[in-house]
Amino acid sequence: MFLQSTITCPHCATAKTEAMPTNACQFFYECTGCGTKLKPKAGDCCVFCSYGSVPCPPIQAVRGGEPGVASCCA
Question: Where do the structural domains in the chain lie, given as residue ranges?
Fold first, then answer.
C-alpha cells in the first residue's frame, strides 16, 4: 500500500507529494502554488483520487480486496 501521493493542481500544475490519511478520505486540499482549494471530482471520494498520483489508502484496499475498508470510499 502506498501512503504518499503527488497531488497536481489542475489550475497551475504545481505538484507536491503529501502523506495520505490511512483511515479517512481528505475532501479538501489547498494548492501550495496558487492557493486554489481543490475538492474531489464528481464520483471520487477524495482529492487524492481526483488529483493524486495514487488513490487514497481506503480505495487501494478496496481494489486489493481487503476486508474492513473505510465506509467513506466503499
Answer: 4-64
Q: Residue 56: how many CB atoms within 10 A of its CB?
A: 27
Q: What is the DSSP letter of 48?
A: H
On the 0-12 / 13-18 / 19+ scale of CB atoms within 10 A, 58 is: buried
CA 41, 28, 18, 55 dihedral sign is negative
At residue 67 the predicted structure's pLDDT band, cuts being 50, 70 and 90, is low
Residues 2-32: pLDDT tens digits? 999 999 999 999 999 999 988 778 999 999 9
Count the alpha carbons within 13 Å of 33 in the hemisphere toward its beta carbon: 12
